[in-house]
Amino acid sequence: MATLAHPDAHAQRLLSGFVASLQEPHTPHISPRRVADVLGVQFSRLADIIGVHRNTMRNPASERLQDRLRDMVRVITAAAELTGDTDRAVYWFMNEPIATLRRRTAAELVADGHTDAVLVHLEELSNGATG
Prior knowledge:
This protein has about 130 residues and is an all-alpha fold. The chain has 7 helices and no strands.
């Protein structure tokens, strides 16, 4: 991943637009359906990715669901700050093993509740580490 220590105004607008595109219509919640579309996965697969039961997905206002979606969005936006591209960040989140985190993907780590470890990894990359 290319590093970008301080996102410029264009990058901030890109990230803000990305996050806004995930909003559940007429609510203050992240839409699980829209997130599934962005990730290119079936709605039921999203439950696995974020580590919630598929029945939880039926209630977008669920605190547990929203917490897990926010974790995922935090990781993707942090990756997008580094790459300058939300599509690349989503691809990385879903597919690229992180060598320093037992070769697991960010999606796998977030599903298991290790969001902070992924964010620390991204911060280290931002500060010039390789990995």
